[in-house]
Write a structure and sequence with these properties.
It is found in: Cytoplasm. It is an enzyme of class 2 (transferase). It catalyses: D-sedoheptulose 7-phosphate + D-glyceraldehyde 3-phosphate = D-erythrose 4-phosphate + beta-D-fructose 6-phosphate. One of its GO terms (cellular component) is cytoplasm. The longest helix is centred in the last third of the chain and has 18 residues, at 221-238. It is built from 12 helices and 8 strands. Strands 1-2-3-4-5-6-7-8 form an 8-stranded parallel barrel, surrounded by 6 helices. Helix content is 50%, strand content 15%. It has 243 residues and is of the alpha/beta class. The chain has one domain (23-234): TIM Barrel (Alpha-Beta Barrel), CATH 3.20.20.70.
Length: 243
């Protein structure tokens, strides 16, 4: 049976846009270092990667090398591991060490002068870098020029100070699109399902979120109501006859 163009059907605009932009799909990352959360999230088959930071690692009580090695066994995707040094040469040395843990490690550097210097040096050695703590389009442009693999603008933290974090996502994606930068935009500090959806609509390649936010994306009262009714109707029709 013919379909699509063969049947005279015009594909919707969003399908055409997806093809035009390379057909990439939004990725879901979990922003956690907790192994139990990662195992549960991974079991759903929708987790594409993980982001960690020194605070999240500290909560788990193990050295970063040990913890991210375990994370890489659970999630088959990019795992961001952040340096804790603040001087460029020390960041580079630490980044090289982290990158050796597993092929999926993405070294995370802060958006400081030293962090950008380290990013540039690591990128030239083929190390993928996630530049974090981005709060302006100008900072994002600097990171892209330094060869960042990922830029992490923080939506929720901008909202906290009265700015509109989602506008930053839109600005960065537009600038990168204008000039063909390959740096992926990772929307960070996502605190609700609305943040996740809005960042996807704004063009972010990746949304990273706490486990509870990913879990909340499943929920809708009409889904629960509909399933309950389906099962009631089925059981009423096919329930065993009372003896």
């Amino acid at each position: 049976m013919p379909y699509g163009a063969e049947a005279g059907y015009a594909w919707p605009a969003y399908v055409k846009i997806g093809v035009k932009l390379g057909g990439h799909t939004v990725k879901f990352f979990l922003d956690t270092a907790n192994l139990d959360e990662l195992k549960k999230g991974a079991s759903w088959g929708i987790v594409d990667g993980v982001t960690t930071n020194p605070s999240l690692i500290a909560k788990e009580g193990r050295p970063i090398e040990e913890q991210v090695a375990e994370i890489c066994k659970i999630v088959d995707g990019d795992v961001s591991a952040e340096v804790v040094s603040t001087e460029a040469n020390a960041m580079i040395a630490e980044g090289l060490k982290l990158a050796k843990i597993h092929k999926n490690i993405v070294v995370k550097c802060p958006l400081t002068r030293d962090g950008i210097k380290a990013t540039s040096a690591l990128a030239k050695q083929g190390i993928r870098v996630n530049v974090t703590l981005c709060f302006s389009a100008g900072q994002a442009l600097i990171a892209a020029k330094a060869g960042a693999y990922i830029i992490s603008p923080f939506v929720g933290r901008l909202d906290d100070i009265g700015w509109t974090g989602m506008e930053l996502i839109k600005s960065i994606t537009q600038i990168y699109r204008n000039y063909g930068y390959k740096t992926q935009v990772l929307a960070a500090s996502l605190r609700s399902p609305t943040h996740v959806i809005d960042s996807a609509m704004a063009g972010a390649h990746i949304g990273t979120m706490p486990f509870k936010v990913l879990d909340m994306l499943f929920n809708h009262p009409l889904t629960d109501k509909g399933l309950d009714q389906f099962l009631k109707d089925y059981n009423k029709a096919f329930a065993p006859a009372a003896v």
